[in-house]
Amino acid sequence: MNIYLESVNLDEIRNAASAGLADGVAFSHVAFSVDAPDSSAKERLEEISREFAFPICVPVGAVASADMYTEARELAKVSDHIVVQIPLVEDSLIPMARLSAEGVVICATFVFNAAQAVIAAKAGASAVRVTLGELEAYGQPGAQALADIKNVLDAGGEECDVMAASPQSALQFAECATAGADIVCVTPAVLRALVVHPLSDKGVDRFLSDLARRPKSRTNS
User: Which of 75, 89, 108, 172 is the most exposed place for a label (fewest CB within 10 A)?
Assistant: First the structure.
């Protein structure tokens, strides 16, 4: 299972990558807009692409068919590592198929069930992004949806990864792994929280206390 960091901050990405905890990055529409007036987002994308040789998932900022295709083509020109995130809506199916045929790597977003995942894979998506918070706010268990999607894709022989987006706790993260997610996207804050257990501080305190009681070695004069 791969971990993608949900961040556009270079220092956060560097820290996670240096610890072996970032296999890629995934941006959201909130964090990234390629057509920002000051072009800062595009410059940051180019910086990340130059420094890291792993997948960089970037969303298009359009829902109209022609606009999605044009923007996806422009994003794909930035780097061979770009994975273009396209919302799974009726108007996106034709551009997704066309882009895939042209070699652009696609991740379908707004995927919430196995039927949608199959449609996305048939249209050329190499991954589907399942946002856990939106599912659970709707009253559906995110882990169960992930497991259903993974099982159906595997049963159909579809070469399409299942990406679980934004687990909020260590428990949710573990549920994503158990459900068979190929990729889990986490924020830097959640990634840090995965390292520490409530018993960790007690364990460290006990360790330091044991060290303090250990007899000091004597130095021969």
Answer: 89
Per the domain annotation, does 218 fall within a domain? no
Domain range for 195 is 2-213
pLDDT per residue over 62-78, tens digit each?
Answer: 889 999 999 999 999 99
**Helix, strand, coil content of the chain in percent (nearest 5):** 50, 15, 35
Which positions ≥6 away from 170 have C-beta within 8 Å? 193, 194, 197
* 168 contacts 133 by C-beta, under 8 angstroms: yes
Residue 220 lies in a domain: no
- pLDDT of 180 higher than 80: yes
Residue 28 lies in a domain: yes
Give the chain's domain count.
1
State what percent of residues in the chain have pLDDT above 90: 72
φ, ψ (nearest 5 deg) of residue 185: -95, 125
